[in-house]
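Hi R.,

As promised on Friday, here is the backbone we talked about, encoded as structure tokens. Could you run it through your design pipeline when you get a chance and send me back a sequence?
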């Protein structure tokens, strides 16, 4: 039996958590101070590298696959990197997408110095390759490109890397779009889908290198022993288990354009259920669109990870005042529609309405019946001859299930 904590133990735990939080805050503050320390511009590559510690220099060496120098002292390693990085610039550029290339172009076009608009993770990505260094120039947080890198980049012909960058951009956006809707894909599944949507089977090693390169910069995808997942997937094993339970159902056949759009940063699928709930929250609570959308987006992710309607209602109650039964019932209705219209990770990108309708009409195997269409009035799965949960009064098979 679990032991209940005493008041003293609870306070000790809270104090420990607060101390850990404060320690983390101080560490982040120290890192930020170092990241944006004054930097001279223009700067040589050796000067930029000398701002880093041995561990950071070793990471740059590893990223560029420079071997046989791990035992060198810091200054000796800087000398090796100073010679090697410009020589490897084309190889590096050929792994980029449009977004990262645009950052490099912007800094280069401004003579090697540009005010930073990147977040810390993105800044650290460029530094970890020895391409751009961060610091404060004339009181502004800036990105500085070493003169050797600037010279080498200007020497490169855009024609030399244009096709690779365009291909990489397509690969990355398609991957992010697929994982937005499917949640998790194994490496083989992802490669097969990329081949289907591009019409060309990618080189496995090259594709993996491009995707892993992008993960370092833009935290939308993560990699584990199962495969590749959307960053919001908490349990990739559970997602694949649900996929395998529906082995006879294909992944939803999105168009290439739909996946490319879903692969854009901060994309949100504002389906009818999403829009209806957001509009209701804005109207009833007088909050702005972004705040309402953020609340509904969290509900969307709860649906995608297989959470229950009751838990979604509890989340909404913790953020919004539901002081009367009428308001609770309204949110139950909006939540029902949200569940039934959201493309779910467990359902391979289908909505529960689509799969239940297919099962009812014989369009899919019995696996399709594992999709649950919610009716808050009965809290039961909706059968094809039941009244449609949308409230139309029609049978499900002649309304939303048609």
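Update: got your reply. Pasting your designed sequence below so it's all in one thread:
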């Amino acid at each position: 039996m679990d032991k209940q904590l005493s008041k003293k133990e609870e306070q000790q735990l809270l104090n420990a958590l607060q101390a850990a939080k404060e320690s983390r805050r101080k560490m982040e503050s120290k890192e930020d101070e170092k990241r944006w320390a004054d930097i001279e511009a223009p700067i040589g590559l050796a000067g930029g590298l000398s701002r880093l510690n041995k561990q950071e220099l070793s990471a740059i060496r590893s990223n560029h696959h420079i071997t046989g120098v791990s035992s060198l002292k810091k200054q000796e390693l800087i000398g090796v990197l100073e010679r090697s990085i410009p020589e490897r610039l084309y190889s590096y550029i050929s792994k980029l997408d449009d977004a990262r290339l645009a950052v490099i172009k912007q800094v280069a076009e401004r003579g090697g110095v540009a005010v930073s608009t990147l977040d810390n993770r993105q800044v650290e990505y460029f530094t970890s390759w020895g391409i751009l260094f961060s610091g404060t120039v004339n009181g502004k947080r800036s990105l500085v490109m070493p003169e050797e890198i600037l010279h080498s980049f200007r020497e490169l012909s855009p024609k030399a890397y244009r096709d690779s960058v365009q291909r990489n951009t397509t690969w990355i956006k398609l991957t992010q779009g697929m994982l937005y809707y499917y949640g998790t894909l194994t490496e083989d599944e992802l490669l097969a889908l990329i081949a289907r949507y591009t019409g060309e089977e990618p080189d496995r090693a090259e594709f993996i290198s491009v995707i892993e390169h992008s993960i370092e910069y833009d935290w939308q995808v993560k990699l584990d022993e199962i495969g590749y997942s959307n960053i919001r997937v908490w349990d990739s094993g559970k997602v694949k288990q649900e996929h395998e339970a529906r082995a006879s159902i294909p992944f939803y056949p999105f168009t290439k354009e739909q996946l490319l759009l879903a692969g854009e940063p901060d994309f949100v699928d504002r389906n009818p259920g999403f829009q209806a709930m957001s509009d209701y929250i804005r109207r009833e609570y007088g909050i702005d669109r972004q705040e309402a959308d953020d609340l509904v987006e969290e509900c969307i992710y709860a649906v995608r990870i297989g959470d229950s309607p009751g838990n979604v209602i509890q989340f909404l109650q913790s953020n919004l005042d539901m002081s009367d039964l009428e308001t609770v019932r309204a949110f139950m209705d909006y939540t029902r529609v949200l569940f039934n219209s959201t493309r779910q990770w467990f359902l391979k990108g289908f909505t529960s309405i689509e799969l239940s309708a297919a099962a009812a009409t014989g369009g899919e195997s019995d696996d399709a019946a594992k999709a649950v269409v919610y009716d808050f009035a009965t809290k039961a799965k909706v059968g094809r001859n039941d009244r449609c949960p949308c409230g139309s009064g029609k049978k499900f098979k002649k309304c939303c299930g048609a």
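One thing I noticed while checking it: The longest helix spans residues 7-35.

Thanks again,
M.
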